[in-house]
Design a protein that fits this description.
Nrap_D6; Nrap_D5; 5-stranded mixed sheet; 1183 residues; Beta Polymerase, domain 2; Alpha-Beta Plaits; alpha+beta; chromosome; RNA-binding
Length: 1183
Amino acid sequence: MKRKQNNQDTDPDKNKKHQKTDDDDEDSEELDDFDADEDSLQSDVGDESEDDFEDDIDIDSKMQSSDAIDTSLSTKISKKKLFKPPTNDELNQLKETENLYHSSLFRMQITELLSEIKLKAKRQRQIEQVFTTVKDMLLGITKGKAHELMDQDWLPKKFVKVPLHQSPEAVKGRFQFLPPAEVKMVGSFLSNTCVKPNVTLDISVTMPVECLQSKDNLNQRYLRKRALYLAVLAKHLRKKEEVEDLHFTYLHGSHYKPILILKVKGDTGKPVTVHLHVIAEEGLFKLNRFHINKNNVRKQWYRGETEDVEEGDQPATPLYNMEVLSDLTLTQNNDHLTNTLGDSQGIREGIYLLKVWLRQRELDMGYGGFSGYILSMYVAYLLSKRRLNKMMSSYQVFRNTLLNLSKSEWTTEGITSCEDGEDSQRPLLSNFLETFDVVFVDVTGYFNICACMNKSCYNRVHYEAGKAMLLLEDHSLDSFSLFFMTPLPFLRKFDNVFHIRDLSCLETSVTKFDLADRAMDLGGDVVATVTPSLISVLQRALDRRITLLQVKQESTPQWSINDDPPTPGSQGQITVGVLLNPDTCTSVIEKGPPADSPEAEDFRSFWGEKSELRRFKDGSICEAVVWMQASNEISIKRTVCSEAVKHILLRQAGIPAESICYIGHQLDPLLYLPARSKAGFRCYGTGEEETIAVTRTYDSLCKILRNLKDLPLTINSIQGTSPAFRYTEVFPPLPATAPSQLMEADDTFQCPKPTKPTPPHIPVLKIVCMMEGSGKWPDEIEPFRRLKAAFHIALGKILSNEHKLVVRTTPGYVDVKKNNYIFRVELAYTREIALIKSHRTPEGMMKMRDTSESIQLEKEIVALPKLTSTLHGVQQQHNTFSGAVRLAKRWVSSQLLVDHIRDEALELMVAQLYIAPNPFSVPNSPLVGFLRFLHLLSHHDWSRTPLLVNLNQEFTAGDYAEISSTFSNDRKTLPLMFISTPGDKLSSHWTTGSPTAPILQRLILLAKESLKVLESQLNSSQIQAATDFKQIFRPPMDIYDVIIHLRQRMVPRQNQAVDINNETTIPLYLTDRPSTVMPVYEFDPVQLYLSELRAVYSDYALFFCDRYGGNLIGVLWKPQAFDKSPFSVNRIAGKMPILLDTDKSSDIQTIGNIEAILEDFQVLGGGLVSKVEIKKWDFGSVQ
């Protein structure tokens, strides 16, 4: 059933392939579930409307059409029809759905998608009329005068220029324009396989035989005449009223093959895009003249020499030959495609689905891309081989094509559609395999359809097809969204990406790889010349460190008809992406063959001076390349691939390291923590080593706690609950060894000196110890707590007396100092939760009722330990999880929103990217994990779709159904950001109460903009070492009404700030400091000040601050707090009375006293606050 479609997504990153036509209705709906409370932010937060937020909602949740709903509302179904038995067709359809599709919903989604991307009959008629119009215009062009091929002055260059880069200029031959011999419709519109929205009408324009001479196959003569013919067409068409716009572009990115793009007015006012292809008349050249072993570009002509050499002494020009053959075989291949596909609707719809799948992966564009034409020809090939049949449904065609593609080997075995074996001059398949990287031979047996494709593009298609088959086997996944609605941008797809920016250095590569003949074959396109060799070198150099390597398919340029064509290979940069093998990508040694083996010399030749002999632990002596010390930080080891790429490209291709921009570690400085030791700055890296040190100390403390014998009850389980134990602490703590000059100390404790800066922040690491069960535990909550306090006292004495640890005991916990880390050990027993829930009714009955205290305690002693253990396991499986989640938390905090969304919610969102990464692979780079986090946050449909985080793969099919049903039925009572885990399926307790609607909208807007800015920076060809990647970590402060400035010296986390300046105090850590005194810990005046502000003024304002070194507090007034209200003694705080013009005392009203509140901000922050800055004095908007 069709449904109405919402506003189309305006974000370029969203899928734009399935937008409605002009005739379709568009609708936007209110986010009723996202209405803010009276106490929530309103439009002050950046004036983001709810429509802006709706634009981010996934297209698959919005694909709706109005027609069916209107029909269903206007047509009343009788009971007789309603209970009518299903027909045979309906039964067959149900059976097919059960056997072939994941679900009925999946089939309905595919049906709806097909209706969205197929051309409507009205539009088809309009395009057919445009074809007639264009054909008449082309056939009406008059004959021109004859000119020498080099003489092109007759062409009015002010209005049109030849769309071909002509080098060398000297060429023999004459050109005379004659009206086309034939104008035919070709391409996807003719075969009815075109997909919206990029529908084009392809028209072939046949040059008459008289335009060409017998030797025009040589030295680019045919291609130049073809370009001149196209220019003449453009010259005449630009004067036509029906033609709105004229541009040139390259066919599939090949600079040899310009085509003319024109937009022609249609009946409805919407123009039709037409591509004009100029081809030679059939039979003019014999196909064997362009055999892959023959030469058609003379070396002496190309180099400007006069000496004439026989063809036998010339190098073959297979790529040039293929470019000409693509024109000569166009009609025959087009007829073959149309005849093979026949009138089968299922086959065509399958091709529609395949094209959408391909387009979402950005594989169908640019030079050497896996175009829709190749895809359609492959489906025709499978039909001819009976691997598909015309009775299949669209889904069967889609699935079987991907299955065959995943099992194919076009690089080593190749395929051919030619079944005619009579032509003895036709090259063999083995000849094609020796010449080209990828082989798919057409029906003539002469033309390789994939001649321009490199191995990396085919390998990516092969990889994606294999991955697609795995997804289709998993019925728990939303396959429709993964295949057709989720774009896979290059930057988020690959773990590491690098740009080769200075393409002038590729001239050196041509020499080093000895590719002069290939460069001539390609007409001087150095990028296309060198790319296959670069791929081979990089593949060998990275080898076991990667699972996939691809050179990015760049979009094909377009230019005005009066502009010069782009120079071949002038795309700006070459971008290469790699998927890393997490097990080997950080290995610091590249082990080679044994020193006495024949392969050793080749290894030394490949790696050069980096290669050396080393003895390994197994006693073998082998060649090896050592990239760095094994003791280096993990963040440094992640740059091994970068070092290998830069070294090998310099050695083998002559590309200097300065020309290579390697993307993978650009955000690491956000996790650096400046710290000093006596020897200078302490090496902190990105904190992974500090987390490991904390974990080791924790393990040793756990061992002590498990072996305690003198406690009345034993400890059943021990689990750390602090983020450091989940590897998600943004800045893992350093040992508490700051110098004592900052503190006053007695024998056991230290206190900060009021005349000194605040000591560096030392967090406590919380540990929950679950006690064994016993019938002697009290049945009342107060006795229970007193008994627990006695246990804490006993535990503190044992740790102090027997294990000589420094402890501080309180009724609720014991703080323990071990290896200069502070652990907070809390004894717990699950019965306490039940005691807090218990309450006695007036009738004397005991009932259980959830309270805020019981819910919080359950989170702390049940849910959080389990979550910590699970996320610890995620980190053990995927070692970049820590970096990604810490970048995400650092970003949220830098936007001053860290106190408005729980850390655990952010951690679960990042965990989802690792647990269920489809259609991507698991991110093996913190940067890529962070990019995907921003995309998930900004593009997930939070209002309509729960985020299901299947920790430990514990969800069952029944759980998915239950969660979906509960979410739909109870949506208005559930949290706005609903995150479901196996331990918390229906309540989402990590997001209950926060974020609120305005905060969530703000997060989404900031995430979308940050993603756009960061991807723009990383994709830029101008990226430099000085590029400011911290830009997205600096919050916009113009939205706040008041900004409270803090004294930097009083901020204990100042060295964690995004920007460090000369006034920042870098803490000094001493390695030889005695550990007999408990330091100042968990002391953060900024957080204490914020707590006071929220406790006193939460009715008046919202407060925002960066937890990690922020020295600004943003304040937003709540509009309703400044409304006039009746006087009340109980609610006079922060208000002032105003007297109305009456004599009645009841008419006294109160209003917010802003001046007094601002003064209180300064008073409460005495010694901490430096000034209170008023950003907006016009309070009329909040009164």
